[in-house]
């Protein structure tokens, strides 16, 4: 591989507030604006809250394994580094390629979400019928908004992580302010009677909760952006783990409170007739149209934070794979001045820009297919945590998890349980189109992996990984 791939280095420029805004902003995103109503309809008000608390427990346990590993091995690529050190070359590729599916599915999701929310502000702006996908008419102006947003986010990430971090902090603060206004207002103005039914029984109580739980990994993916950008974080290694866990716990509370506030303000019939439940609930709190529009602006802010974070996470994961000979070399190139993985960012930008062509139906497909990739990666990281505790007990771990075996095995078992929810036989199993997306992604990745191994051989990647490992916290 060329010097352009291996000679440059990433810059450590991200402070604590940058890292917290990056992870929390990634996790809250836009999904809560567009999907909260369907969560409550599927599982009931308390059922939806229970789904996020239970799913959040899984994420907290997995997050603990990430926190220890990120503090011990603060290299770019996160999951890629941990799984390689614990289980070897191919396992590392499968783990990282799976999480990249999750990241890119979020980036593509936001390119579909942006024109959807603009439609709430300007109801008649979508014109110029192109085609119909899954009974949804794709309009030219609608597609143009999604593509334009994707290209803008690509440019922001192209010019450097400092610019991306500043955008992240400002926009995350806006979301928090509007969210606090909504939740406090709903607690004073809402009625407990509107929360009925507490649990939805059409698919059984457990079935309704499961339908929501399978979306939880997709909604919480984001804390793992911290390990991906570890070489750009300017913090003591122990603090990396702490900030990661704080961001996860904040996100659990955020989702639970947003569901609570919405269910306090809108009854089942109002939820059924609402295209965007949270803005409608915000309007009901303040009895004014401006409030709903303010919440939509917070939703647009959420799109930007999530979009931004996963450009960072996805491009760094692709860079790490290419840097070690697991993907074509051009994806491992850093920009000579901005020190960003330029070709990886451009590739994500192209994929994101194509997503709006599939229309609004693509949002659910991306959530579910990407969610499966995410939980597979979580399983690999949890296993890596246990293996390295046994294989390398003397490794320096600045953030050290207590009761490591219990936490590790619970994370493994719960990750396996989450994977089971996506499989045939489960009430929440993937649909054929979602399996096609997942299988197609894995097939493309395996093809690139085999081609890269054939082209570069194993010697380069083994030497490169050995050099990378010398940069861990014990160095």
Strand order within the widest sheet?
A: 1-2
Structural class: mainly alpha
Sheet of most strands: 2 strands, antiparallel
Residue fraction in strands: under 5%
Keywords, please?
475 residues; mainly alpha; two-stranded antiparallel sheet; 19 helices; 72% helix; globular
Describe the structure concisely for a colleague:
The protein contains 19 helices and 2 strands. It has helices spanning 3-6, 16-28, 31-43, 45-72, 79-87, 89-121, 140-158, 161-189, 205-213, 216-220, 225-228, 237-265, 268-272, 277-286, 289-323, 342-354, 362-391, 404-421, 432-469, and strands at 129-133, 136-139.
Explain what this protein looks like in three dimensions.
This protein has 475 residues and is mostly helical. 72% of the residues lie in helices and 2% in strands. It has a two-stranded antiparallel ribbon. A hairpin with a 2-residue loop joins strand 1 (129-133) and strand 2. The longest helix is centred in the C-terminal third of the chain and has 38 residues, at 432-469. The two termini are 26 Å apart. Mean pLDDT is 82; it is low at 1-8.
List the helices and strands and how they pair.
Blueprint (H helix, E strand, L loop, with lengths): L2 H4 L9 H13 L2 H13 L1 H28 L6 H9 L1 H33 L7 E5 L2 E4 H19 L2 H29 L15 H9 L2 H5 L4 H4 L8 H29 L2 H5 L4 H10 L2 H35 L18 H13 L7 H30 L12 H18 L10 H38 L6
């Amino acid at each position: 591989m060329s010097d352009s791939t291996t000679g440059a280095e990433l810059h450590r420029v991200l402070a604590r507030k940058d890292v917290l805004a990056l992870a929390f902003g990634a996790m809250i995103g836009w999904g809560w604006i567009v999907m909260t109503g369907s969560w409550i309809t599927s599982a009931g008000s308390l059922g939806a809250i229970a789904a996020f608390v239970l799913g959040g427990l899984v994420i907290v346990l997995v997050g603990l394994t990430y926190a220890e590993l990120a503090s011990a091995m603060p290299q770019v690529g996160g999951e890629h580094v941990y799984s390689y050190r614990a289980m070897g070359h191919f396992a590392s590729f499968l783990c990282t390629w799976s999480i990249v599916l999750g990241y890119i599915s979020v980036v593509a999701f936001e390119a579909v979400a942006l024109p959807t929310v603009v439609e709430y502000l300007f109801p008649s702006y979508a014109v110029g019928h192109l085609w119909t996908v899954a009974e949804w008419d794709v309009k030219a102006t609608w597609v143009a908004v999604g593509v334009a947003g994707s290209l803008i986010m690509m440019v922001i990430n192209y010019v450097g992580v400092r610019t991306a971090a500043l955008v992240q902090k400002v926009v995350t603060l806006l979301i928090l302010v509007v969210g606090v206004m909504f939740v406090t207002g709903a607690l004073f103005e809402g009625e407990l009677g509107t929360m009925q039914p507490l649990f939805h029984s059409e698919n059984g109580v457990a079935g309704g909760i499961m339908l929501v739980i399978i979306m939880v990994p997709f909604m919480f993916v984001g804390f793992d952006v911290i390990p991906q950008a570890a070489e750009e974080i300017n913090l003591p290694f122990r603090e990396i783990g702490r900030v990661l866990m704080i961001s996860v716990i904040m996100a659990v509370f955020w989702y639970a409170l947003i569901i609570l506030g919405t269910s306090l303000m809108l009854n089942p019939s109002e939820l059924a007739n609402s295209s965007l439940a949270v803005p409608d609930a915000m309007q009901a709190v303040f009895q004014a149209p401006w409030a709903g529009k303010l919440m939509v602006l917070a939703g647009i802010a959420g799109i930007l934070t999530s979009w931004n974070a996963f450009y960072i996470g996805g491009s760094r994961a692709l860079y790490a794979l290419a840097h070690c000979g697991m993907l074509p070399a051009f994806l491992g190139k850093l920009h000579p001045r901005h020190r960003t993985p330029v070709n990886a960012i451009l590739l994500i930008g192209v994929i994101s820009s194509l997503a709006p062509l599939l229309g609004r139906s693509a949002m659910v497909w991306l959530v579910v297919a990407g969610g499966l990739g995410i939980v597979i990666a979580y399983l690999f990281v949890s296993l890596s945590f246990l293996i390295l505790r046994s294989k390398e007990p003397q490794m320096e771990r600045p953030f050290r998890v207590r009761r490591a075996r219990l936490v590790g095995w619970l994370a493994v078992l719960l990750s396996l349980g989450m994977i089971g929810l996506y499989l045939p036989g489960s009430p929440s199993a993937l649909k054929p189109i979602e399996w096609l997306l997942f299988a197609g992604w894995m097939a493309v990745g395996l093809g690139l992996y085999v081609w890269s191994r054939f082209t570069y051989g194993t010697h380069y990647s083994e030497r490169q990984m050995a050099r990378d490992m010398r940069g861990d916290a014990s160095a």
